[in-house]
């Protein structure tokens, strides 16, 4: 059976309703693909603490997370299956600093599909775009 991993990802939105998108570097798995930053949930760790820890490690900044899951998807890659849990968040104070990723951009929802997203993220991107259309 394929390995199953549980990953949390932050949908960070600023005051202009731009969404934070991060580009995985050459050195990372799924290189040169865009993602909502985050990482694997460790054993005995809750998803919200895992997300705060990952953003601190990857961008040197603190986030405040929603207390509910925005959406959750499962995707089959060739070598593993991912359970991807997306949670909305806001930056607290500091600007993000790149420590692992190649780049980041803030994009309006309608421009999100211009990026080359990790395949598991596509349903999340679509849900974000549809969410905006409802208002
Ligand atoms: N963080 C994140 N990972 C994603 C997303 N979409 C997606 O397919 N992935 C994949 C890429 C990786 O294979 C895996 C997450 O692993 P990672 O390498 O970022 O997490 P980590 O920091 O805990 O990993 P590691 O240090 O143990 O290698 O999930 C996403 O939106 N955010």
TrEMBL record:
The keyword Electron transport does not apply. InterPro entries: MutT-like, MutY_C, NUDIX_hydrolase-like_dom_sf, NUDIX_hydrolase_CS, NUDIX_hydrolase_dom. It catalyses: 8-oxo-dGTP + H2O = 8-oxo-dGMP + diphosphate + H(+). Keywords: DNA damage, DNA repair, DNA replication, Hydrolase, Magnesium, Metal-binding, Mutator protein. Its EC number is 3.6.1.55. SUPFAM superfamilies: Nudix. Its cofactor is Mg(2+). It comes from the Bacteria. This is 8-oxo-dGTP diphosphatase. Signal peptide: none annotated. Pfam families: NUDIX_4. Residues 3-130 form the Nudix hydrolase domain. GO terms for biological process: DNA repair; DNA replication. It comes from Halolactibacillus miurensis. Belongs to the Nudix hydrolase family. GO terms for molecular function: 8-oxo-7,8-dihydrodeoxyguanosine triphosphate pyrophosphatase activity; 8-oxo-7,8-dihydroguanosine triphosphate pyrophosphatase activity; 8-oxo-dGDP phosphatase activity; 8-oxo-GDP phosphatase activity; metal ion binding. Gene3D superfamilies: Nucleoside Triphosphate Pyrophosphohydrolase.
